[in-house]
């Protein structure tokens, strides 16, 4: 007769029980490893051009700049309402950045997409897509950042 832990009877249940226990232990271990997202790096061809875009068009602020040990010029951009930053990186001697369409994008919430579009039009830019109403009632639109990175704008419904 088995106690359900590993004898002939109840062996499969015991295996399933040990598997679930191992998965819970792994999740507990992994959940303690990563605490939060700190920044996202985007390599750029012209650091100053990209900094101007994020400052002048999106109203973001540079929190710090420095040169990495590998010689990369870095600018960290603060994102409003969160601790995460965008790290812009210009790496001398590397091949030019060419972002393939729809590879990735950054998304920012805005109060009024129409007003945002009017403001960037005064600066010579226009929306690359949208505005489009979503099924949730939000309105989304896109603008193109330097190197072809997309920026999504979301007006909550």
Question: TL;DR of this structure?
Answer:
With 157 residues, the chain is an alpha/beta fold. 27% of the residues lie in helices and 29% in strands. The mean pLDDT is 87.
Description:
The protein has 157 residues and is an alpha/beta fold. The protein folds into 3 domains: 1-35, no CATH class; 37-94, 2,3-Dihydroxybiphenyl 1,2-Dioxygenase, domain 1; 98-157, 2,3-Dihydroxybiphenyl 1,2-Dioxygenase, domain 1. 27% of the residues lie in helices and 29% in strands. It contains 3 helices and 8 strands. It has helices at 11-31, 47-57, 113-122; strands at residues 39-43, 61-67, 73-78, 85-90, 105-109, 129-133, 139-144, 150-155. The strands form 2 sheets. Strands 1-4-3-2 form a 4-stranded mixed β-sheet, covered by helices on one side. Strand 6 and strand 7 form a beta hairpin. The chain is globular. The model has no long low-confidence stretch (mean pLDDT 87).
Relevant terms:
alpha/beta, 2,3-Dihydroxybiphenyl 1,2-Dioxygenase, domain 1, four-stranded mixed sheet, 3 helices, 27% helix, 29% strand
Compute the number of helices. Answer: 3
Q: Radius of gyration over alpha carbons? A: 24 Å
Strand count, sense and barrel status of the largest sheet are:
4 strands, mixed
Outline type? globular
Beta-strand percentage range: 25-35%
Compute the separation of the termini in Å: 62 Å
The name of the CATH architecture of the largest domain is Roll
Supply the number of structural domains. Answer: 3
Helix content: 25-40%
Question: Looking across the biggest beta sheet, what order are the strands in?
Answer: 1-4-3-2
Q: Report the oligomer.
A: single chain
Residue-averaged pLDDT, rounded? 87
């Amino acid at each position: 007769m088995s106690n359900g832990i590993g004898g002939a009877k109840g062996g499969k249940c015991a295996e399933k029980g040990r598997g679930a226990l191992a998965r819970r232990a792994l999740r507990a271990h992994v959940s303690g490893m990563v605490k939060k997202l700190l920044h996202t790096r985007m390599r750029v061809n012209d650091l100053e051009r990209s900094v101007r875009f994020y400052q002048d068009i999106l109203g973001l602020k540079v929190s710090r700049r420095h040169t990495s040990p590998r010689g990369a010029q870095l600018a960290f951009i603060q994102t409003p309402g969160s601790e995460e930053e965008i790290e812009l990186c210009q790496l001398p001697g590397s091949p030019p950045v060419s972002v393939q369409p729809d590879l990735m994008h950054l998304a920012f919430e805005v109060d009024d997409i129409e007003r945002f579009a009017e403001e960037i039009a005064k600066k010579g830019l226009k929306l690359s897509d949208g505005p489009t109403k979503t099924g949730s009632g939000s309105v989304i639109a896109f603008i193109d950042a330097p190197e072809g990175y997309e920026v999504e704008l979301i007006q909550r419904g």
